[in-house]
Amino acid sequence: MSPEHVFTLAKAYRMYFSTDTYDFIKYRGHIKTGPLIQQRDRQFYYRLSTKLNDEQIHATLLMTHFFKPTAYITDVVTPDAVDAGIALSSRAENGITVLKHDLYEVRKRLKPRLLDEWLYAPMIDGQRSVMPTSLSEVMSRILPLDLACLLLLIPQPDKGYNWPVYWERREGKKSSLGVMPWLTRLRKADQLLNLVRPSWRQMTHKLADAFWASYRLSSLTPEQEEYQLFS
């Protein structure tokens, strides 16, 4: 990927995650920018262009902006950010194999009695806390981003499971607090994964169906309904 293309993509990723006015999928990452040669930070775009392949660049930009929507290029080129991008890219290379392995590991530790707090937040003195365990795992990078999209965004109508709709009703769609900002980021990440990974939709729906079917004797709906947290 040329340095100029990296420059354009970096601006597009930042605009996509930090605002609601730019549709990365519609414009395929195209955005108006000034000439790269005139940018004082142009060295960083050249560095990414020469150090990473196209898939790794996309993954690094995705990971960085998912966790920090307003990230600048100096955030993208840190060793930790690049390592996270390479790790996400390698998951794509391994395809369904790594997802199946990780789902197996999640299923082993996520016992039926833990489902409610994992999906809908722990109950404390009869009231739910603000953050579900599943999202805490995403924020602490325990639950991989692609796996989080698979488990949290795909509804299971036959089991009454629709995680995004539950949180929209609980917090309000426009809430800037709690889960909703992270849900927005997850949805954007899922759109980007679908753009760069072949058969992402078909593969993840099949895996999600099989995973949640393994809880055939358990409910995926919240044990207790809550009033809207933020209005």
Textual characterization of the structure:
The chain is mainly α and 231 residues long. The chain folds into two domains: 3-90, Helicase, Ruva Protein, domain 3; 95-213. Helix content is 61%, strand content 2%. It has a two-stranded antiparallel ribbon. The mean pLDDT is 93.
- Global mean pLDDT: 93
Side by side, the strands of the main sheet go 1-2
Radius of gyration: 19 Å
| Oligomerization | single chain
Distance between the termini: 45 Å
Low-pLDDT residue spans = none
Summarize the biggest pleated sheet: 2 strands, antiparallel
* Sheet/helix structural class: mainly alpha
Number of helices: 13
Strand percentage lies at under 5%
Keywords:
231 residues, 13 helices, 61% helix, Helicase, Ruva Protein, domain 3, two-stranded antiparallel ribbon, mainly alpha
Compact description:
The chain is mainly alpha-helical and 231 residues long. Helix content is 61%, strand content 2%.
Show the helix and strand layout:
Layout: H1 3-18, H2 24-27, H3 42-51, H4 54-67, H5 73-76, H6 79-94, H7 96-109, H8 115-120, E1 123-124, E2 127-128, H9 133-139, H10 145-153, H11 163-171, H12 180-196, H13 200-213
Antiparallel strand pairs: 1-2
